[in-house]
Amino acid sequence: MLSSLPEHFRSHGLKADVRTLLLLRKAMQKGLVKTLGDIYNVLKGIIVKDPSDMGPFTKAYYAYFLHIPIKPGQTLEDAIKRSETFQKWKMDYVEEADRDITDEELVNTFLDEVHLTSYDIKEVVSGKEIWDKDNPDQEDTDPMNEDDDIPSRKLDKMADYSELSLEELLERMEKVREQQKTRHGGGSHWIGTGGISPYGHGGAAKNGIRVGGQGGGKMARKVMGDKNYFPIDRDSTLNDNNIDAALASIKGVIEESATEKLDVPETIKSGLKRGGLFIPEMSSEKNEELKIIVLIDNGGYSMAPYVRTVQNLFRKMRTRFAHDLEVYYFHNTIYDRVYTDERRTKAISIEKLLSHNKDYRVFIMGDAAMAPYEINSLSIESLKSIPQKFKKCVWLNPEPIKYWPHTYTIQLIKQLIPMFPLTPAGIERAVRSMNSKGTEG
Amino acid sequence: MAETSHWTGSEKYLCDPALAQAFHMARTLGMPLLIEGEPGTGKTELPIHYAKDRGLDLEVYPVGSKSNVEQFVARFDHVKYLRDSQIEILNAQREEKGLDSKLTTGDRDPDSLNDYVVKGPAAVAYSKPNSVLLIDEIDKAPREFPNDLLYALSHRKFIMPESGEVIEVSEEDMPAIVITSNREQELPTAFKGRCIYHYIDFPDQDTMNKIIDKHHPKMDEKVVRVALDVFYHLRRLGLERAPTTREILNWLKYMSEIAPNEAVKKIAGLEGIGALIKTQADMERVSRMIGADESFGANLN
Questions:
Q1: Contacts with B86 from chain A: Cβ below 8 Å
Q2: A309-316 LR contacts (CB < 8 Å, sep 24+)
Q3: InterPro entries, from UniProt (chain B) (predicted)?
Q4: What is the pLDDT of residue A320?
Q5: How far apart are CA B6 and CA B23, in angstroms?
Q6: What is the rounded CA–CA span in Å between residue B96 and residue A320?
Q7: Strand pairing category for A121-126 and A207-211
Q8: A256/B143 Cβ within 8 A
Q9: How far, in Å, CA of B240 to CA of A244, rounded?
Q10: N or C: which terminus of chain B carries fewer CB neighbours within 10 A?
Q11: Which positions in chain B have a beta carbon within 8 angstroms of at least one beta carbon in chain A?
């Protein structure tokens, strides 16, 4: 049941597996799930592990449970308005409300219903009472505003499933979801007057529910429009907007360790003072190591847009960590020297570069696109010698990965030095591959 | 049975409903709650106020660059153990020589290994059912620390070093564990997977108003309004280090000593703005803004 859930959420770039289902199940057993909004909440806590996951998560949730696909660049409102689910719900709702409602109000009510959580529910009232009150025959009253002092939310119908067993509930969810998807679900919807809220059609619900407080609808609305939640396309080429994400992933190259050690000289010294009673003295040691060589291709127009951003990235890194960071420049490919200044007037020989301690990590940034004859045997020798000396060496390429197979020189260099795209995600992968090499030896 | 009722904040602490729900969920499932968010959004305050409000015992483990799992759970104090056993010899020698004065081991007995187990906050919290455990700023820890915690957090069982004493807690009695992080480093995926995750949003102006009201209930309304305008204006500038809740509260604390009318003037004149701005580059930027844009500050009155 709901067995396709992990796969679906994974297809949105989220981490979900069978444990997700087990946790969801546990949450149900503990009574945390009573409404559709509760599922949103619980899954959010389980699946979302980063603020940037929020957007994709909301997207996946709407597609999976409500069959509302949100296309790239589309707002949630827009997606809802265009969805069949909403149209169906609207028909029922408008009929019932018996008054003119603007689209905006409708979307708001829809969102409120979707995101109604059991935390919002102030009071469970007898289903019969509500049933009577909202009987279609009594058309003259607006049942929502009548007697309660909770002004904000106008929702008093959501099924209470306390009577159902867990298995029944799961089964029901899956069935309803399927029906929603195949679009001929009859009267059974997740939301609104059918389905998960059986009240209203057939009166299946034993209890009605009265709600107050603020719903999660506001949150979802925000998530879709807020760049803080859809902040960074981690696969877009490095730019000023995602530089912090890149910085976060590049931080993995810092080797840090803290250990308590027996301080032998101090122990002997103080032991002798005590006349031969040696009481061990401890001292703690903290090591932070960051040794980096950055080689930047700053020749040619193709690299111009990236040079500044890349420099910015490493400058930020230097100010934060202030360790050994050396930057050199080259044009297209490396021959027998690299340059120490941006204008490429002062050079050091490749031998000098290779004389650095082998613990240095080397980042080479360039698009690796050039005329084939530019990579001559000298250049190939140099490119080979760098990863030979520095085991932790990667090439970061701003060129979109889909063009790589079509550029001969990229293919060539890729065989010499592990190449990753110059995106936050790519940098993260590069750093991870460096670190794994580190442990191998 | 651990306390799992839904807690929505206390008199002193305004708890965002989404956070309260995540916290409730974590406690119900017996999982740690991992809270991330900008500094000064009250991450650390949640467990502190929760424990205070409900009268529960609180154990705090502030994480630092030298944190290791031994400090967190328990370690065996070899140094003291050796010292005490040496002292026994010493005392015996002294007695032989007929000397009266003895060195004391301070009630510790080298024969009882338990005396030398130094229990960390985790072991203490696990041995007290229904307590609260705060692991503060886990992102400051060395990289292996969160991974070392995995076992400790998911197995509800610690074995004390050397003495072999077992501290175990049932799923029902799990302490409420809250872990905070400022996102200075990414936490391992496996670690995050074992937590309920919540990201605290920066409070909007209305919420901030309420927060200020909880801290400075006597504050003049107008002063607060003007200060908040400046505050959110600064946040929108995209500074390197945007001012946070903590800073505005400090700023207002300073302003609360001054008569309201004076204070409004001072705020509009951006006096004591150093309380809000933390870096030189930001300060220069703000000064430039004020110079370039006369309306900044002026339109706040």
A1: 277-279
A2: A309/A238, A309/A239, A309/A240, A309/A243, A310/A238, A310/A365, A310/A422, A312/A240, A312/A243, A313/A238, A313/A243, A313/A246, A313/A247, A313/A250, A316/A243, A316/A247
A3: ATPase_dyneun-rel_AAA (IPR011704), CbbQ/NirQ/NorQ/GpvN (IPR050764), P-loop_NTPase (IPR027417)
A4: 59
A5: 8
A6: 61
A7: antiparallel
A8: yes
A9: 11
A10: N
A11: 6, 17-18, 20-22, 24-26, 28-29, 36, 65-68, 78-79, 82-83, 86, 90, 142-143, 183, 185-186, 189, 192-193, 196-199, 201
Which of A30, A45, A281 minimises the CB distance to B196?
A45
- HSE-up of residue A306 (Cα within 13 Å, Cβ side): 23
* ipTM computed for the complex: 0.77
Question: What DSSP string describes A324-371?
Answer: EEEEEEEBSB--SEEESSTTS-SEEEHHHHHTS-TT-EEEEE------
Closest partner residue to A280 among B20, B24, B82, by Cβ? B82
Instruction: Return the SS3 of A274.
Output: coil
Contacts of B22 in chain A (CB under 8 A): 41, 45
Q: Which of B29, B66, B90 sits opposite A30 (nearest CB)?
A: B29
Cβ burial of B280 (10 Å; 0-12, 13-18, 19+) is exposed
DSSP letter assigned to residue B102: -
H or E segment and range at residue A270: helix A264-273
Residues of A in Cβ contact (< 8 Å) with B192: 49
**A-B contacts (CB, under 8 Å):** 79
CA distance A13 to B50: 35
Residue of B80, B181, B196 to mutate, testing the A interface (most A Cβ within 10 Å of its Cβ): B196
* Tokens of residue B20, six digits: 């309260």
Cβ of A51 within 8 Å of Cβ of B90? The answer is no
Nearest CA in chain B to A286: B66
Per residue of chain A (441 residues), give pLDDT as tens: 577 888 888 888 888 888 888 888 888 888 787 777 788 888 988 998 887 788 888 888 888 888 888 777 677 788 888 887 788 777 777 776 666 777 777 887 777 777 777 666 544 443 444 444 444 433 333 333 333 333 333 344 444 444 555 566 666 666 666 655 554 433 334 444 333 443 322 233 333 344 444 455 666 666 665 555 554 445 566 666 666 666 666 666 555 555 667 777 887 888 777 777 777 777 766 555 667 888 888 766 777 777 777 777 777 766 655 567 788 888 888 888 888 887 788 888 888 888 888 888 888 888 888 888 888 888 888 889 999 988 889 998 888 888 888 888 888 899 999 999 888 778 888 887 887 755 443
Q: Which residues of chain A approach chain B closer than 8 Å at the C-beta?
A: 15, 19, 23, 26-27, 30-32, 41-42, 45-46, 48-51, 54, 117, 119, 213-214, 216, 219, 228, 248-249, 251-252, 256-258, 277-282, 284, 286
Whether the model pTM is above 0.90:
no
For the record, the structure tokens of A319 come out as: 């100010």
> Cα–Cα distance between A346 and A122 in angstroms, integer?
73
The answer to whether A214 contacts B79, with C-beta atoms less than 8 Å apart, is no
pLDDT tens per residue, range B181-194 = 987 777 888 888 88
